[in-house]
Amino acid sequence: MRFPALSIARRYLFSRKSTRVINVISMVTAFAMAIGAAALIIVMSTFNGFEDLVKSLYRVFYTDLLIQPAEGKFFVPEENILQLLENNENIISYSQVIEENVLAEYGGRQHIFTMKGVDQNYYEVVWELLDHIYSGNSKLYEEDVPLAVLGVGVAYKLGVNLNLPNTLLNLYLPRNDKSNVSDVANAFRNSQIYAQGTFSVQQDFDDNYILVPIDFAQNLMGAGNKISKIEIRLRSMTNPDAVKKQLAQSLGKDFIIKTRYEQNETLYKVMRTEKWAVFTILSFIVLIAAFNIISSLSMLVIEKKQDIATLIALGANRNTIRNIFLIEGLLISLLGAISGLVIGLGFCLLQINVGLIKMPGTSFMIEYYPVEIYRTDIILIVFVIIFISLVMSWLPAHRAMNQLSSIVPGKD
């Protein structure tokens, strides 16, 4: 005779027990699993939201690929390198860039910032930066006059007001030649440039970067036609690692090529580590809550001892008895887990579409906590809960299976 273990387990789950505490423990277990599942999906979705937000902000300034010299800070972009990039069908555009720290002075205020000299293709490579212009405009030239675009933090520190008629900045750079450095007047190179606009992307960039034309930067640095790096924008759906490998084979060991991930490897690793650390902690909380399954099923096995004897008399074997209580534990957990996932997903959808919880303070660029739901997270949470439930259900299910020996000696 075949015994429908699922039907029997479902009947045990919803039937009234003679000992009421069994129902209470089962309800507490399901409730705890629901809270754990809801917390897991909400927390992981929030981490996903922040990760996507940070990636989108860093994508504005960090390009798909970056070519820089393996040794030293600067190199001369030879024609064969530029031709290689021109002929690559996966590359939409590229920009030659030179960077150096400079002392900026305006209205008596002085600070050290990063001067980033860019060519005319720069806004094609980092096209999203145009959406982050805070004031003024993004022009780097007005006829033949070079202009600067400042991060809003740079403008604030220097006290630059674009509404005033005079926004002329003084930029200073130590000489690297053999001039008499004891003569302060000749120890620094100096150039002046008008501030034309400001951008607001992310604090790391806003507080540190000044964008200027590349020839202006090269003249100030006395670098000739040397550059620091080449920033590359790829076509959508292109695999950056594949293009990186292709370029690396052509350029050889004199250059280092980095993807966007590798340019911010530490940041991305920290975000991922934090996410999975929190996931592990919450999983342990679910594991602790699942210990109630042992208590609930152990008491249920004692109560259903007569039912087990009846099933044995009807021909049930050890595996059937074990499966009934394994499924019982799974049903308790899944009842709570599904409820928790529904609650958690509902909360996340409301946060995405309506906005329930605001970011603290008023200085951040988004008003509400970012949330992003990943299907893989849902699958992983369900898998973890099922695994924990099976582990916690095994002991009482094994105990129920052993009831065969005490009720019908020699029965297996």
Description:
The structure is a single chain. The chain has 412 residues and is α+β, with helices and mostly antiparallel strands. It has 2 domains: 5-58 and 267-407, no CATH class; 63-260, no CATH class. The protein has 14 helices and 11 strands. It has helices spanning 5-14, 20-61, 79-87, 122-125, 152-158, 184-187, 203-206, 214-221, 240-251, 260-263, 265-303, 305-313, 318-353, 375-407, and strands at 65-69, 91-106, 109-118, 133-136, 141-142, 145-151, 168-174, 188-199, 209-213, 229-234, 255-259. It has a 6-stranded mixed β-barrel. It is elongated, with a radius of gyration of 33 Å. The protein starts with a helix and ends in a 5-residue tail after the last helix.
Order of helices and strands: HHEHEEHEEEHEHEHEHEHEHHHHH
- Quickly count the domains: 2
Main-sheet strand order equals: 2-3-9-6-8-7
Structural class: alpha+beta
How much of the polypeptide forms β-strand, as a percent range?
15-25%
Describe the main β-sheet briefly.
6 strands, mixed, barrel
Rounded average pLDDT: 83
Tell the overall outline.
elongated
| Counted beta strands | 11
Q: Uncertain runs with pLDDT below 50, 5 residues or more?
A: none
Helix fraction, binned, reads: 40-55%
- How far apart the termini lie comes to 15 Å
What integer value in Å does the Rg equal?
Answer: 33 Å
Q: Count of DSSP helices?
A: 14
